[in-house]
Design brief:
Layout (H helix, E strand, L loop, with lengths): L3 H32 L4 H12 L3 E2 H8 L3 H13 L3 E4 L9 E4 L1 H12 L2 H11 L3 H18 L11
Antiparallel strand pairs: 1-3, 2-3
Length: about 160
């Protein structure tokens, strides 16, 4: 039987491995954004608007888990660069609708095709057996479920 101290150390090692992977992928994403002269958040805005056109500012804040004020600053830069159109619908003057321009769509597509983290992860996965890759996906999904981040999580049904 594993002692509480050993469980605590093991939990710390697992958390540290997730944090390190997260830091590495964020660093790659930031590098990708910088190569296009933008911030990580601006890049995320473009990619999100490409996948889901005509979002409102409120919907975008929900998807990117960011405040309206933080997003507004980044959107201002994208509007000035001619990448995003900000509209206030006549039927609801309190809403702000966001749409990519053609230039914004093209840039978002280039950003996605240049995703360093995806290319690096593909190279890493090539070094692992198919069984190991499937195990990683299965275990990570199970961990996420147990953390309560998924609709299937037993913790969300309490």
């Amino acid at each position: 039987m594993i002692s509480l101290d050993e469980k605590s150390k093991l939990a710390a090692r697992v958390l540290e491995s997730y944090w390190n992977i997260s830091k590495a992928t964020i660093k790659m994403a930031q590098s990708n954004a910088a190569s296009f002269g933008m911030t990580l958040q601006q890049m995320s805005i473009l990619k999100t608007l490409l996948a889901s056109p005509d979002l409102t500012l409120k919907e975008l804040t929900g998807r990117l888990v960011s405040s309206k004020s933080t997003l507004s600053v980044n959107i201002n830069g994208l509007v000035q660069a001619g990448l995003v159109i900000r509209e206030i619908p006549k039927e609801n003057r309190r809403e702000v609708k966001l749409t990519l321009t053609d230039k914004g769509k093209e840039l978002a597509r280039r950003i996605i095709s240049n995703a360093v983290s995806s290319r690096v992860m593909m190279k890493v996965l090539d070094r692992l057996s198919e069984e190991d890759v499937q195990s990683i996906v299965r275990i990570n999904t199970e961990v996420l479920n147990h953390l309560g981040e998924s609709p299937e999580s037993p913790f969300t049904k309490l």
